[in-house]
Amino acid sequence: MLEKVDLKKTVDKETYKRESAQLGERLALLQRECKAEKIPVMIVFEGEGAAGKGVQINRLIQPLDPRGFDVYASREAGEEEKMRPFLWRYWTKTPADGRIMIYDKSWYGKVTVDRFDKITKRHELTGAFSDILSFERQLTDSGVVIIKLFLHISKEEQKKRFKRLCENRETAWRVTEDDWKRNREYDRFLLITEEMLQRTDTGNAPWTIIEATDRNYAAMKIMATVADRLQYEVSRRQLERSGNSREVPKIPQERFKNGVLSGVDLTKCLEQDEYKEKLDRLQKKLEYLHSEIYRLRIPVVIGFEGWDAGGKGGAIKRLTSHLDPRGYKVNPTSAPNDEERVHHYLWRFWNNMPKAGHIAIFDRTWYGRVMVERIEGFCSEEDWRRAYQEINEMEAHMANFGAVVIKFWLHIDKDEQERRFKERMEDPAKQWKITDEDWRNREKWDEYETAVNEMLVRTSTTYAPWTIVEGNSKYYARIKVLETVVKALEDKIEEIGSEKK
């Protein structure tokens, strides 16, 4: 989902100057408090080439006491390091109690850059990821605070920065042919990065995505992220020492959100004639593909989420129009009943997962855990934060079984939702579709948007990616859903055919 993150975020100079000064004072104080509490801190800077890691490290350390931190620049492993396990050099650079260690690139090079350059072989990846997760878990279990920052820029911005560096004789050396290759093959590198983020975004060491196009915005977000996390860790330890462990402070909310939805173009539309032509062609194609997935015994899971009145029902109706009813089932999801409440929240969804060759369509899904249950307080903060990993693991299990997992977020703007609500209220045939709860949820639009943005970033994986559907135009939305499903099924069928050759 990195490609969906809004990279146009900026901050004006006056705001940056004022906010960074305040954050700097706070960071200096927190550094002293971490030293007093003997809290070791590791801050990891990762990101694409020329994303500004060096610049941002410099800005972060300006207000800090230089006697209390070290910066380790991770470069290509030397001969001594190559003769040892790859984590050896990072184990030897972990901080002592009360100190801060900042990493300019880190152990993640093993599963990103080295993987891209084919130094790390495919059969080594599982072990490398396992080693990294074990490394971080052992450190956090012992009290180390790990803050991981990924600085993200677009392919075009990276190319522009490379050119600027190359035009200056004093900085040209910083751009290598390998850097240019990663820019040319940016999409491949992005996929590798996506997998790394999804496999290592854990509760004990989560990733924060930094929109790094505007350096001032990136600096503010980094300083705020580090300060909020350190404040939480200091407060938690002080409360535990005083015997008030039940009053542990809440995990800090990210103040500078990743605006995935803000980058969606809702002006996209289709004219009726084009819609009808595409609809007919795609539905006939799906009719054929449905028989193929049955023949090849491919299970398919399709989940629909979106705003109330976003068009989920209409899209599902067009999707199933030409399918054999014996081979699919639509599962509408409402509030859990008494039996479902006494089970794990994923239990009721496992009960409706498809067998090989069949399609399960979910009208709302397990993502209620990190949206409505989160916003309405139906589960604890610890529960919904843990759910991201639980959901990713469930979907990975389905994908490992051979299932095609397709997830849609049907996106409309607030004005379009209001128009559709009023239309439903005025039409006797549609009044049943609108409830008082729909209007109440609308009042919490901003809270839901924050939750949706985080959900999209944390659970869009290589094996179960989110597709955001521009839904202000119902015609456009329905066709995009059908095109996405057709492509996913065709790709899976082609993959199986290649494996048999």
Beta-strand proportion: 5-15%
Strand order of the largest sheet: 2-3-1-4-5
Record field, number of beta strands = 10
> What is the CATH-assigned architecture of the largest domain?
3-Layer(aba) Sandwich
Round the Cα radius of gyration to an integer and report it: 25 Å
CATH class of the largest domain: Alpha Beta
Q: What name is given to the CATH topology of the largest domain?
A: Rossmann fold
Helix coverage percent of residues?
Answer: 40-55%
Low-confidence stretches: none
Query: Structural class of the secondary structure composition?
Result: alpha/beta
Quaternary structure type: single chain
In this structure, how is the largest beta sheet organized?
Answer: 5 strands, parallel
Task: Count every helix, treating DSSP H or I runs of 4 or more residues as helices.
Answer: 20
Mean pLDDT value: 93
Shape: globular
Q: Quick gist of this model?
A:
The protein is an alpha/beta fold and 501 residues long. The chain has 2 domains: 2-258, P-loop containing nucleotide triphosphate hydrolases (Rossmann fold, 3-Layer(aba) Sandwich), CATH 3.40.50; 262-500, P-loop containing nucleotide triphosphate hydrolases (Rossmann fold). 52% of the residues lie in helices and 12% in strands.
